[in-house]
Amino acid sequence: MTVENLSTLLTFVAVGLIGASVCGGGWIMLRGAAGTARRRARLAGVQDLGVGGGPNLVDLSGVVSRVGRLGHRMAITDPSKLTALRAKLVQAGYFNREAVAIYLGAKAVAMVAAIAATLAILPWLMHGKSGMLPVLAAAFFAVAALLGPDQVIKTRRTAREREYREGFPDLLDLLVASVEAGLSLDAAVGRVTDELVRRYPHLAEHLKFLTLELRAGRSRKDAWAALAERLGIDEAGSLATMLRQAEEMGTSLGETLAIFADDMRSKRMLRAEEKAMALPAKLMIPLILFIFPCLLGVLIMPAAYRISKTLIGHH
Questions:
Q1: Model's pTM, two decimal places?
Q2: Given a cut of 70, is residue 190 above it in pLDDT?
Q3: For an engineered disulfide with 71, which of 83, 101, 179, 204 has Cβ 3.0 to 4.6 Å away?
């Protein structure tokens, strides 16, 4: 590698680090502002029903509205694709009606930014002495623009699904306790929501939606089926099916919920045991890459130093 290629590589690395630090600082400031706004709204008695629906979009309404208008021009015409995309965004926590348009607009903005970044590095590419670095940079920008928004949604969905699976056994235990204490299922859901809001806030958001749907007159089986669709986990679908069958067959709701809660606790214990069994295999990579070379160096370096001194002394 020539000196010019090395300097170009260091320039790209420096620009990338500066961009990452700026984006990270902006993200931290935005999260702090959003958290402050949510706390103020909670103290004021305002319901926080998710990103795009209230105080989460702090001081970004103008930017979001512009991105949404851009997304409206790229609206999906296929109803099935539009429904699937809206369901995916709801599972990621974006409940706003304009979430699809904002998502499409964000993808368009990412593509425009990637094109602008590619045009910015064209002089290095036309120079002919930078090698493959500009081509790799352009490919990186293109891949980031194509997969970046989808990866953000996927990461957010994965994090929320993990919270839902962890909180579902606690939800069922509290439902069993409330139903056995004499509350109806609808009243028990409202009582459980108040208990889960601190430990599992995102799961509590969906339970609030469930409570509002039940109060609005939606049937119980449809409301629980909608909850399972919003959560996107198998446990919620099984619970909705179980409640529908219990309502149709007239079985005891408390006993049914107790059996289902025991099953959920067993599944959570099995997941914990699975993670514990997989831990040694996961530790092998950092042990081999980081700890073992250091240990090997500590053990071998004194002997190598003595051998080298002995050989030099003989010469």
A1: 0.62
A2: yes
A3: 101
